[in-house]
Amino acid sequence: MSAELNVPVDPSNAACPEPGHKGMDYRDWVRRSYLELVTSNHHSVQALSWRKLYLSRAKLKASSRTSALLSGFAMVAMVEVQLETQYQYPRPLLIAFSACTTVLVAVHLFALLISTCILPNVEAVSNIHNLNSISESPHERMHPYIELAWGFSTVLGILLFLAEVVLLCWIKFLPVDARHQPGPAPSSHTGWQAALVSTIIMVPVGLIFVVFTIHFYRSLVRHKTERHNREIEELHKLKVQLDGQERSLQVV
């Protein structure tokens, strides 16, 4: 006498991705495919948000370090510079040095202020290992301020620092081997030649810096544009697939 064995089958293990398989009709297969597409799109959006968060954090850290370093150098240069009391400096030179140093310190301190205020809030969220905590970070809302601090620290601040070096060379070397008399120093003086050489060297460096900055930002914008175009194409393909599956659900 043969006995029949009724083995229970787990319904979760009986699922099959093909619509023609037993246990899953076409409607269930379309619904499952729709959920998979929505889930993958949700994960890609979260990955993009986390990438923006890490980029904002890196920019804030770089801005704070650069601004603190360059503003400290500028303050030390102004305090430690020793003016020759017996030499009559050109008035435009002293005014330019004072204005450049003040603007340089103010720009870097402003960038440092923005980085100091926003960075702790971004760091607090980035240290939480939870995908859903990305909405608590203020980096999206504070994006203009982050870019402003980044531009002040890396572009405007460095250009002002190069100008500060040139003016400091003129103030430091101009009285060397010069006659103690009013008026501009002759070109035969050693100090005047040394200051001129520093200016000649710094002008190409400044031009190279400007050209590199423009080229870098153009390349970065081109890269972002291409990446956004690819994302738009992927979203368009996803929309076409979802529209086709929605029509299939309506037909079924």
TrEMBL record:
Gene Ontology cellular component terms for the protein in this record: membrane
Keywords tagged on the record: Calcium, Calcium channel, Calcium transport, Ion channel, Ion transport, Membrane, Transmembrane, Transmembrane helix, Transport
Name of a matching Pfam family: Orai-1
Localization per record: Membrane
Catalytic activity annotation: Ca(2+)(in) = Ca(2+)(out)
Recorded coiled-coil stretches: none
Ranges annotated as spanning the membrane: 95-119, 148-173, 193-217
Keyword Chaperone: no
GO BP terms in the entry: store-operated calcium entry
Family: Belongs to the Orai family.
Domain of life per record: Eukaryota
Protein name: Protein orai-2 isoform X2
Membrane topology value: Multi-pass membrane protein
Native species: Octodon degus
Main location: membrane
GO MF term list: store-operated calcium channel activity
